[in-house]
Design brief:
The structure is a single chain. The protein is mainly α and 277 residues long. It has one domain. The chain has nine helices and no strands. Helix 2 packs across helix 4, helix 4 packs across helix 6 and helix 6 runs antiparallel to helix 9. The N and C termini lie far apart (91 Å). This is DUF4271 domain-containing protein. It holds the Pfam family DUF4271. Keywords: Membrane, Transmembrane, Transmembrane helix.
């Protein structure tokens, strides 16, 4: 009697076990199909990855620009080394001679123009890195190449306007010979500022200098250049001690204020670009 009961229970549980196995196999099959469907959708649509933030060191345009500056400065140094060294001697020793624009050849003038352009380009890259650190949202809204071109153009306009201002004031208040000497000295400072900026920009771009180091080293280069300018002003335009205060006022008006105006102009330009783009 007991054996018959066990046989009946086994017969009843066998279909249930088979149904459970079938349901489990079906669930596994449905799960595999669902996983395959999701995988197919991901392959078709792709994963949405995290965008890499912009960095000047990975920008091919900046790398090519620095490489071009290196070759151009090398050519200028190789072919105009004697002419450039003569300018440094005249600047330091304050030699009065024939104007550089009368005695130099066309090749020398081409090299000098290339060095002026190089200084403007390197100064533009310096500002570009500074605003990249202080205003990273700007790089996400505006093309980095466009920003670099704007900064280089502003630096070139700055040097050109100062050149014209020096010519106007010099020929208005001083004689032509003294004005030409100052323009030559100003040109010499611009040429050699480019040579000083080149290693600084290389460290700035490829060694990722911090913002504090950027400001400190950039300020040292700028202050040293202004000290050399003031030295040349004293040599050319200082004749008596009573005129020293007036000379300092003119120096601040022509050297310090334009730098502040250039900086504020770049900030306003950045704000306009953020609004427009």
């Amino acid at each position: 009697m007991i054996g018959d009961t066990l046989s009946i229970q086994r017969a009843d549980t066998l279909p249930l076990f088979q149904q459970g196995q079938t349901a489990s196999a079906k669930a596994d099959s449905d799960s595999l199909q669902l996983t395959a469907a999701h995988t197919a959708q991901e392959v078709e649509s792709g994963f949405e990855g995290t965008p890499i933030p912009y960095s000047p060191r990975t920008d091919d345009a900046i790398s090519l620009t620095l490489l071009a500056c290196f070759f151009l400065s090398s050519i200028a140094l190789a072919r105009g080394k004697r002419f450039l060294s003569q300018q440094v001697k005249d600047f330091v020793l304050h030699r009065e001679r024939t104007s550089i624009f009368d005695s130099s050849t066309a090749a020398d003038m081409r090299y000098l123009l290339v060095l002026v352009l190089q200084t403007c380009v390197l100064a533009g890259i310096t500002f570009f890195n500074y605003f990249h650190d202080t205003c990273p949202a700007l790089m996400n809204h505006v093309s980095p190449l466009l920003l670099l071109g704007i900064y280089v153009g502003l630096c070139l306009a700055y040097f050109l306007l100062k050149w014209l201002l020096y010519m106007f004031l010099g020929w208005t208040f001083f004689d032509e010979n003294r004005t030409n000497l100052w323009l030559e000295s100003y040109s010499t400072l611009i040429y050699y500022a480019g040579f000083a900026l080149f290693p600084f920009v290389l460290f700035l771009v490829y060694f990722d200098l911090s913002l504090i180091n950027l400001i400190v080293i950039g300020s040292i280069i700028l202050i040293f250049a202004k000290i050399l300018m003031f030295y040349k002003w004293i040599k050319l335009f200082f004749h008596q001690f009573s005129g020293l205060f007036l000379l300092i006022v003119y120096f601040c008006a022509l050297e310090i204020v334009p730098c502040l105006l250039l900086y504020q102009g770049m900030i306003q330009m950045n704000n306009i670009l953020l609004i427009k783009f």
